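Troubleshooting: if your tokenizer reports a length mismatch, compare your output against this known-good record of 124 residues.
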Amino acid sequence: MTDPAFAGKRERDSLLAALELFRELDTPQSTNALALFLYVCENEGVNMSELAYVSRLHVATAARLARALAGEDEAAPVADALLEFRATDEDKRLKFVHLSPRGRELRDQFDAIIARATPIRRRV
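Known-good structure output:
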């Protein structure tokens, strides 16, 4: 049954729906963590310096968040890692950030939410 207090109210918009989906995960819950994840979605294969630059975070902050989202932070383990690091054969020290299978699944869910979005229009 619909609560009469909410009758006629607008459904959750796509941005809020995506935020709620992210909040349900066992990941760091900050705008920086979400932004970092979204930057990897758009720039998969980025290195840590590039990721810090595009996300406007200090390299140490970006690296800490990326490790947490990859499930590599022992202080805050993540059940389903969203990111993973890959090294090249030429230089094992240089790591590139990619989406994990769970990260690709979440990216696809975000993409579906955005595709279904109703444009927000100014009410007259």
